[in-house]
UniProtKB/TrEMBL annotation:
Transmembrane segments: none annotated. Residues 7-94 form the Polymerase beta nucleotidyltransferase domain. Gene3D superfamilies: Beta Polymerase, domain 2. This is DNA polymerase, beta domain protein region. It comes from the Bacteria.
Amino acid sequence: MIIHDYHPDKVILFGSRARGDDRPDSDIDLLVISDQEKHLPRYKRGLRLRVKLSDIRVPKDILFYTHEDVARWQNVRQSFVATVIREGVVLYER
């Protein structure tokens, strides 16, 4: 669904599931790097996907960043983006 609808360049799993210290109630954290909805504010990106996945009862946090967002923050050592890139698990890369 993410690949088909948003044509991302990269999808990264981060957080406890990526580190391997997740619990049964842990959420799934994904960073999707795509320019598909770059005209929208970050909080509105991926809204269609969140609606489609709303029936799936697994807690999830799916964040959409553009290439510009990533370029701006990837070299700032303590930034969220740099941490995800450094510690996350790439699930998909074009």
